[in-house]
Write a structure and sequence with these properties.
3 domains; elongated; alpha+beta; 4-stranded antiparallel sheet
């Protein structure tokens, strides 16, 4: 019952909280999303939570804002960072709501199981003939006692198993030792005996019968306590059945046991008594399609109330949702930072190509303005053909749009260098702006030198990355070497020892 209440609490907490937030944020202004981006669910609620938690995590949000400024230079960094944080809050709310829905489904499933158990008049359906059976965990309340979880084995529908009689005598002798279990001798039994149903190596089915089931059950469990003060003698009979070509035969072996009070608490004794009662009921009704659960127990006919034991799945699902929601924010920021690092590396890789093309077109007599227009047109045509997006091409298109909108060309080159970051782009933008303002006849030769230097740096960077890849491959190579050495040395060692 405690698991059920915990599951109900987990299932209802987030939806109720979300409902309160929806009510509080009904008049919250919604930020304008960039063109082409989908509207996330609970956007108004996310904006409300972002406004009241704006000052929390300023360091982390500053890092995310810096990465967004690199990835989306054409948009206002502050507005973009605000939309990013709001979108992240909306996704976290969706994760929590999904976890609550799953927890609610688990609670409803548990309630339905309880209702099904009651409607079936305390019956558990068996598997068909030839099945393997199954085990259920039920909760029982005997009289006014506390709830006890009892494992119930529901055997498959089958006829009484058969055994061979050729090994009956040998098995009878061995059962005298196996039966004692954790007890020292048969003259002092203080623990349950091992009333096994079969013994490995023998194709027999064993059934046990006690002449004093109120003292020692047919399953080998000590049932009494007060009446065993001086010890009680019990005849414990093993019935062996086997089948050969002539048919089914049975043998009996009687073992004399002296049973003394068990050393355990009443709760454990009650649990064992319930288990014994269930096993006896299961054995007596194996031909029935259902296992009828007992409704009372003992000479005083104490009533038993059965219900499905809670498995805690609702709480587990909700905790999983909480962990996913807690991990979403840092994982999202890490992904954003990786995209920013990828942009930086891609711009550094494309720089030699840009400088060499600038030098080539400038040597052919084209002006800087026409060169960047051609570079932008070539990139746009490549994108229409299905080529991948490149950050440098997007920056060139942005540069052309700035000039077309009226920004001075020299100032647009400075903006281009500041957006691309890096000393190489700052140096290039300074050369281009200086050429427009003051004129520079040596620009072509400077670009040729810059292109050569950029390609040299690119080769050095490729060499460093290759060395890093070799270092990362060193660990699996060492592991493979160790496995190879084991494959060689173990057979050699075994051959020497033999």
């Amino acid at each position: 019952m405690s698991e059920l209440w915990a599951g109900l609490l987990c299932a209802a907490a987030v939806p109720l909280s979300t409902g309160v937030l929806l009510l509080l944020s009904r008049r919250e202004p919604v930020p304008r999303l960039p063109d082409g981006e989908d509207r996330p669910p609970l956007l108004r609620t996310g904006a409300f939570l972002y406004r009241i938690t704006r000052t929390a995590g300023t360091g982390r949000r500053a890092g995310a804002a810096a990465d967004l400024a690199l990835l989306y230079p054409s948009r206002r960094a502050e507005g973009r960072a605000e939309i990013y944080e709001i979108r992240k809050i909306c996704h976290i709310l969706c994760i929590l709501l999904l976890g609550s829905l799953l927890a609610g489904a688990a609670v409803l499933q548990s309630l339905w199981r309880d209702r099904t158990l009651e409607q079936e008049t305390f019956r558990l359906e068996r598997d068909a003939y030839g099945g393997t059976g199954r085990e259920e965990i039920l909760t029982a309340r005997v009289g006014d006692s506390e709830a006890i979880d009892v494992p119930v084995t529901v055997s498959a529908r089958r006829y009484t198993p058969v055994q061979m009689d050729a090994l009956a005598e040998k098995l009878t002798e061995e059962l005298g030792r196996v039966l004692l279990g954790d007890n020292g001798t048969a003259d002092r039994i203080t623990r349950d005996v091992a009333a096994v149903n079969d013994v490995e190596g023998y194709p027999f089915r064993i059934r046990w019968e006690s002449d004093a089931p109120e003292v020692l059950s047919d399953e080998g469990m000590i049932m009494g306590r007060e009446e065993l003060a001086g010890g009680r003698e019990v005849n414990f009979t093993a019935i062996l059945t086997a089948e050969d070509s002539s048919g089914v035969r049975s043998y009996e072996a009687v073992y004399r046991l002296v049973v003394f009070p068990p050393e355990e608490d009443p709760q454990s004794l009650l649990q064992r008594q319930l288990a014994a009662l269930l096993e006896a009921r299961d054995r007596d009704t194996r031909d029935s399609p259902y296992l009828e659960l007992p409704q009372e127990m003992g000479a005083d006919e104490r009533p038993i109330r059965w219900s499905e034991a809670g498995d805690g799945s609702a709480v587990l699902l909700f905790l999983t949702a909480l962990l996913a929601a807690a991990a979403y924010a840092p994982l999202s920021d890490r992904k954003l930072h990786r995209e920013a690092l990828l942009r930086e590396r891609q711009l550094r890789e494309d720089y030699p190509v840009l400088v060499s093309r600038l030098a080539m077109y400038l040597g052919a007599g084209m002006s800087l303005r026409n060169i960047f227009i051609k570079l932008g047109d070539d990139y746009r045509d490549g994108r229409l053909r299905g080529e991948k997006e490149r950050y440098l091409g997007e920056e060139i298109l942005l540069l052309n749009r700035e000039v077309e909108s009226g920004v001075p060309e020299a100032e647009a080159y400075v903006h281009f260098g500041s957006r691309c970051r890096g000393s190489m782009y700052a140096r290039l933008s300074s050369l281009l702006a200086q050429n427009l303002r003051k004129g520079n006849r040596t620009l072509l030769s400077v670009l040729h030198r810059e292109a050569g230097e950029a390609y040299r740096e690119r080769r050095i960077t490729a060499k460093v990355r290759g060395e890093e890849a070799e270092t990362k491959l060193l660990v699996p190579m060492v592991m493979m070497l160790a496995v190879t050495m084991l494959i060689i040395m173990i057979p050699a060692y075994l051959s020497f020892t033999v």
